[in-house]
Amino acid sequence: MDIQDLRIFARVAAVQNLSAVGTELGLTPGTISKRLQALEEELNARLFDRTTRSIRITHEGATFLVHAARILDELDIARSAVGDNVANPKGKLKISAPASLSQQFVGPAISAFVRLYPEIDVQVDVTDRIVNLQEEGYDVAIRCGILTDSTLIAKRLASDHQIIVASPAYIAENGTPLSPADLSVHKCLVLGDGWSWNLDRDKEAANIRIHARLRSDNGELLRHAALDGIGLLRTSEITVGDDLRTGRLIQVLAEYGTNFDTALWAVYPGPKHVLPKLRVFLDFLAEWCRVTREDIEPAPHDSTSKKSTAAF
């Protein structure tokens, strides 16, 4: 049984698209189909149900996938444990990163990493969508926010805070909100489908219904709207750090917490052994965040006492 056939089978099972797997592996869809057929003939089992528009794994295929995935994981671990792959990590690293961090944070960090590790090929998909790492073939995702329960492992890269900001032009035209209640009469820029913002001060919490002047699933689009004076934006402090330092954006209601303090994370599937290419990336990113935050932190925050979670 050919190991490459197992890899093709596992990727088709995850992606359910022959063309996408072909592009990823540098093979034509016809070749992918022939390799799957050969594997099915060898196993004397139908692994996928195919139509002209879709491909779905069968019950037998799902059973076989459990064992194939374990074989491929063990093979990768075996390869990483010998030769110079530990001292000189190599291979392909597929990363998901939020659009709101791509320009100011992720881009410079990835460029520095690629220069430092020339034998690691990197693919970065920039999206604010929460990807499924295992099904979509990602090694790691960079995320900013509060993490939900999951089977993934999370490495905390840097503390962060959700703040509310606006451009000087917006403040000049609409005034500065002085209390949470003022938010109800302001134009707001909203990421996702939320309809209210939570704020607190001295253990008193307020839930304010907001008017979403502009709503999007893309944080970078909303940041540009804030810079253009369209409305107030609740966002990650890391995302708008440069804008705050240069005065392009101004923090409002700074004395109020947003009840939404967050962190920057790297999340990844949790096998028993982390491959060297991923290990060096996680270590590099943690150090990059430490140095970057020390260099550009606009103001200290009393966040050292906040409890953090290393896994979720």
Fold and architecture overview:
The protein has 10 helices and 14 strands. The radius of gyration is 23 Å and the shape is elongated. Helix 1 (3-15) crosses helix 2 (18-25), helix 1 crosses helix 3 and helix 5 crosses helix 8. The strands form 4 sheets. A 5-stranded mixed β-sheet has the order 4-3-5-14-6, covered by helices on one side. 39% of the residues lie in helices and 25% in strands. By secondary structure, the protein is α/β, with parallel strands linked by helices. The chain has helices at residues 3-15, 18-25, 29-43, 59-80, 99-116, 133-136, 168-174, 219-227, 241-246, 276-296, and strands spanning 48-50, 55-57, 91-97, 120-126, 140-145, 153-160, 162-166, 187-191, 196-201, 204-209, 211-216, 232-236, 250-252, 262-268.
Tag the structure with descriptive keywords:
elongated, alpha/beta, 5-stranded mixed beta sheet, 312 residues
